[in-house]
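We give this protein:

***
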Amino acid sequence: MGQSSVRGKGTRGGVPHARGAGGDKNPRGDREGVPAGTRTPGGEDGEDSGGRRTHRRAGPPQRSTGKKRGKRRILRWTAVTLSLLILGTAGAGYLYYEHLNNNIRSSGRSGGESGVEKAEPNALGDTPLNILLIGSDSRADSKNVALGGGKAERDRKGLADVQMLLHISADRKNASIVSIPRDTVVPVPQCTDSETDETFAATTATPINETLGRGGPGCTLTTWETLTGVYIDHWMMVDFAGVVAMADEIGGVPVCVKTGVWDRPTRMVKGGSGLRLTAGTHEVQGEQALQWLRTRHAFGNDQNRAKAQHMYMNGMMKKLQEQSAWTDTGRLLGLAETATKSIEVSDGIDTVKKLFDLSMQLKNVKLDRLTTATVPTVAWSGDKDKLVMVQDSADKMWTMLREDVAYDKNGDGDPAGAEPSAPAEPKVPAEAPGTFGVTVVNGTGFGGGLPVQGRAGSLAEALKAQGFTQAEASQSAVPRKSTALTYPSGDGDQGESNALAVAGALGLPDSVVKADAEAQGLTLVIGEDWREGVTYEKPKSEAGGLPEGADDKTDCMDVYSVYEWDGKAES
């Protein structure tokens, strides 16, 4: 991968596999995977005053014959042998656990500042979980060169050719996977490489796959946060060799094509993944799995390539659930060995326990509640081979994610998830409206769009009309995706109460009120989500209301006629 600082050393040997060495069979055991103390045969376990384990033989000592002494000697040696085996197993389990931890490579969660904050908990105290999945085309490793070709590209920074955001609802009942095609041109924020400390200036139009070379996966995450307004908890990245290893460990992933396909060079188009499949369903693994994920020409375009990648993800989830991957210890250990060698992760999930706990968040999501989607795009005016998002469609999809509205519909056709919490009661009464100032800032130009002229002045006047006579419009603009109302952290409960009073006067939800250590006073930034009116109306989203062309679930992939294959060696 090569773009980011690495915590683990990627250890590949030195410790035997747990399944062959009596390893820890409880990755969630006490003390981060170290098996808890075990009772030994022939007596009672207890603790001394220092908390150490003790063993007391049952019953008073009795005089016995030589025969009985012989039996006791055998029992004693048996107990000692079992104790040594138990200790040896525990030691191997701990060493294996550390071995897995040392496999894991990690670096910082974000590469810059997006200004996006984590969603407020629902009434049950739960928040959605968002994970950015990245596929890198880096050739920095000899295995990746062998799989992807391009020896001359070993020193080239990798491209994030696969980017999927996995959103798991706060109630953990549904999940969505949404992709942005790799050649989509987007504004990229300023990013800093966590390995080299090199800073990359913000750009207005850069293909999104180049973000990986502008500060590592953390920059890709920050770009997604800036585009979507969705807080992303973690990222995971895999390279060519990692895809092959994981597909082999799973035992193949089911995919389907309507006709035979051979993604090969043609007279008009060079390249191709080399994928060759006959019509129907196949379980792809090894290099063939990588070919499936990289196929673009045979499936028509990048939009359809993302559809094929989503089919693969659905198939992988189905296969893992069929294998009881979350409950079968042996299966889990095999996956753990391969996964920790295959992926790089953000620092927040850089241990086996953290990764296991994260995976448990997925186990209850039913496959019929996993929706895949791709942001609709059109050709970019600056280069017909590049794409830009259809902004209205993208905005609708991002809003649904921010509001934790399901991309599918549940049984009632209503958004899944717990009801929002009731407004919080202020801890102290707000001061009189005319006794404190409010600065109103126009942030409606977010995402490169045109700001609404005079927007800050209109809202300042609306506040004055409700008694907030010290409200003033700022002359500066701070583009922002969603509206925010901040107060200085040092103002404590009083500052919060005053902010809540302003929010109530404008119809804003309490969730927009935040303390800010850098705030100079009570500040209202009018976001892109509030371009008109003086009373805020939260946009309403319906579950399953994806824009046209976004839902890309399919049973079998269509094949572009030029790449259809009749199953013969040559065509």
